[in-house]
Amino acid sequence: MITNVHNKEFLSVELRQLLESIGTLRTFQEGTYLFHQGMDAKEIYLIKSALVQVSLLSSEGEELMLRICKKDDIVGELTLFCDNPKFLLNTKVVETGEVFAINIESLQKELIINHTLSIEMMKWVSNHMRKFQSKIRDLLLNGKKGALYSTLIRLTNSYGIKRSDGILIDMPFTNQELAKFCGATREYVNRMLGELRKKDVLAIDSSGKILIKDLVYLKIKNNCENCTVEVCNMD
User: Locate the Cyclic nucleotide-binding domain: which residues (predicted)?
Assistant: First the structure.
């Protein structure tokens, strides 16, 4: 039997309709950016069809990947309800598609009128701040190995398909991409994945997809707090 693992957090129909009604639909090509870290924040974005990577650039110029966003995800939401907001992160389009650009001032005016949608939007912002803090915590407290284990756990929650022999992460990732998720080098990830294969914790197929065979091992070694799937994911 094969089942999906991730219980995705969805926008309400009402909030999605509001964002679309006041947003401007734009097409972004692969390789372009919705915004860069440090830019003045005048808009947030609702993804209609694109695939977007969200990352943080360190003072040393190292890129730490934080999220993979797709249809119905909101990007740039951490700038809401702030004075003179600036974007905290970078957002790179990795698959061409359409995105609704929503003016922050216009959205805040609408949310003042509709308290129900205002509360929903604040919950969305709060949840993504928790995810952001959780990922940074994993890297700071558990080091690069813990960050890799955490990344694998989060990937199973976001893209995992349960099978009789484990959980398949149903999206291929290169070792370089995995390295960006945990602030490590590609060589380090190569070595760590090799060790996990020897311990029969995981396997990698010819397409680059990872099969997690012993998720409990990763959680124990990473002192996993068993956060909810809504927090522990890559969305």
Answer: 14-86
Region for residue 159 given its phi and psi (left: phi exceeds 0; alpha: psi -120 to 50; beta: otherwise): alpha
DSSP designation for 166? E
Tokens of 40: 């003045």
CA distance 28 to 149: 32
Contact 44, 107 (CB under 8 A): yes
Residue 152 near residue 166, CB atoms below 8 Å: no
Measured distance CA(33)–CA(99) in Å, rounded: 12
H or E, element range at 178: helix 175-182
Tokens of 167: 């959980």
The amino acid present at 101, given as its one-letter code, is A
Angle at 206 between CA 203 and CA 208, to 5 degrees: 70
Whole-structure pTM value: 0.80
CA dihedral 11, 3, 182, 43 (to 10 degrees): -20
Residues 204-227: pLDDT tens digits? 988 889 999 999 999 998 877 777
pLDDT at residue 3 greater than cutoff 50? no
Inter-residue contact 71 to 10 (CB < 8 Å): no
For residue 84 the two structure tokens come to 């003179």
**Torsion angle (degrees, nearest 10) of CA 90, 92, 98, 100:** 0
H or E segment at 158?
Answer: helix 115-159
Strands ordered across the beta sheet of 43-47: 23-28, 97-103, 43-47, 74-75
